[in-house]
Amino acid sequence: MSPSATQNGESAPAQTHPNPVYLSTEPSEDFDWKVSLKGKVIAITGANRGIGLGLATVCLANDAKEVVSLDLFEPGEEFAALQKANPGRLSYLNCDVTNEESVIKVVDQIVAQAGRIDGMIANAGMTKHQPALNFDRPQLEQLFNLNVFGAYFCAKAAANKFIELGIKGSVVFTASMTSYRPNRAAPSAPYGGTKAAVRNMAHTLAMEWSKHGIRVNSISPGFVRTQMTYYVEKSPDWNLKMQYYGGMPRLADPKELGGAYVYLLSDSASYTTGIDIPIAGIVGAW
Fold it and tell me: Compositional bias (Polar residues) at which positions (predicted)?
C-alpha cells in the first residue's frame, strides 16, 4: 500500500514535516564591521608552543576576551610570558585530543569558567618525515589519531556546545600545503594524507552545520618556524632550493598566520564557510 493511501483506496493527505530550525548568520543592521574578536572565547589545541602559541598571541592582540590552550603538555616560559602580558585572558587546560571524552570535558570546563565558547581552532598535530616505505602501522596510527581524529573530536565537541548555547560559532582547522601537493623538501606521504583529510572534512562539516549558524574553514600553512621545522633553514642547500623553487626564501613566524584565523573566527566572516586559505610564502618550494 502506498504510504499516502488509506485502506479503502482513498488518497490520504500527504504528511508534512516542519522545516528545520536555521540559526541565521546574517549580521544585524548595527553590526560593527571592524574585524575583531572582542567578547569572544577561543579554544586553541596545541597552543602551549609553536603555531598554536602564535595564534593565541594574535587572537589576544585582536581583543579576544579569553583564549584557552588545550594541550597535553605543560606550558613553558613563552606561554607564561604571554599569560603575564595578558592577565586573566590566557589559560591552559590539560587535554588529550585523541580522547573524545577528554575533549568534551574541557569544552564543558571552558563554558563553566568563561560562560561561553565562540571559536575552536583545531590546531594540534604532528609530522614525521621519512620515506613512505619506512612507515609502520603504529606510526601511521599515531599520525591519524592526532591529526585527523583529534581534529574531528574537537570540531564535534565545539559544534555540540555551540548548538546547545545557541552560539553562531566558528571552527578553524589547521591543514597544510601538503594537503595540495607533496613537500619536496621533506616528504611525508602519511602526513599529507592526514592534512588532506582535515581540509576535506572542513568542507563537509561546513555544509552539514551551516543550518546551525556554525562556520567551518581551514588554513593551509607552508613552512613555519617551529620546534618541528627549525632544521629546514639549516640545510646546506636551503639557499639553492629557494633560488630554484622561488617564493619567499624564509620560514614564516607563526604569528604571520594569525590574521587569517582571526578573520575566520570573527563575525566579519559571517558569510565565509567551507573554504581553505593557503598561507605559504614559499609555495613554490612545495
Answer: 1-18
Q: Kindly state the helix (H) or strand (E) to which residue 278 belongs, with its residue range.
A: strand 276-279
Q: How many CB atoms lie within 10 A of CB 31?
A: 11
How far is the C-alpha of 196 from the C-alpha of 178, rounded, in Å? Answer: 8
Domains detected in the chain: 41-285 (3.40.50.720)
Residues recognised as catalytic:
176, 191, 195
Continuous segment of H or E residues that includes residue 258: helix 258-265
Distance, CA of 38 to CA of 52 (rounded, Å): 19
Phi and psi at 231, nearest 5°, equal -70, -20
Query: What tens digit of pLDDT does each residue of 227-275 get?
Result: 665 566 666 776 776 665 566 767 788 999 999 999 999 999 999 999 9
The model's pLDDT over 32-49, given as tens digits with 9 standing for 90+, comes to 778 999 999 999 999 999
Q: What is the pTM of this model?
A: 0.84
Q: Which of 43-47, 166-170, 177-181, 243-247 has the lowest mean pLDDT?
A: 243-247
| Neighbour count for residue 90 (Cβ, 10 Å) | 24
Burial of 60 (0-12, 13-18, 19+ CB in 10 A): buried
Q: What three-state secondary structure class fits 183?
A: coil
d(C-alpha 242, C-alpha 162), whole Å: 44
Nearest to 178 by CA among 199, 155, 201: 199
